[in-house]
Amino acid sequence: MARDPKVIQKEVIDKFAQDLPQLYTVIVQHSDLSTITWAPLLHRFPWDIIFGNVSKGNITVAGGAMHPMTPDLGQNECAALEDAVVLGQQFGELIAQRSRLVPLEVAHALTQYAQKRRWRAAGLLPHICQGGCN
């Protein structure tokens, strides 16, 4: 995988932008080389989210770390907002019950969040695998 921004720029123009409108090639040609990087898109199966422990004590996984999606799907940000809503609901319920945030009960709130989010996060993956995943 190329690391040199000039090589990446040339490869994108020569191999990947040929079927796109000319405007895309012009944008890549005029891009600041310090902003060009190359990173592989990797498929991650959701097994760790479904069967693993994504919450332990006062620590949990949320946002991009919770969602096994490549950025080309454009759904990770939406799913992160859903995470924030569910986390807010869990902490809101805890505060409503106790009139304050009780540190010893935060772990339970995070466990509830993880249980509510695990299947939703895993369910977002099939969009990638419709043609079969390797």
TrEMBL record:
Keywords: Monooxygenase, Oxidoreductase
Gene Ontology MF terms in the entry: monooxygenase activity
Domain of life: Eukaryota
UniProt KW Oxidoreductase keyword: yes
Listed transmembrane segments: none
Name by which UniProt lists this protein: FAD-binding domain-containing protein
Source organism per UniProt: Quercus lobata (Valley oak)
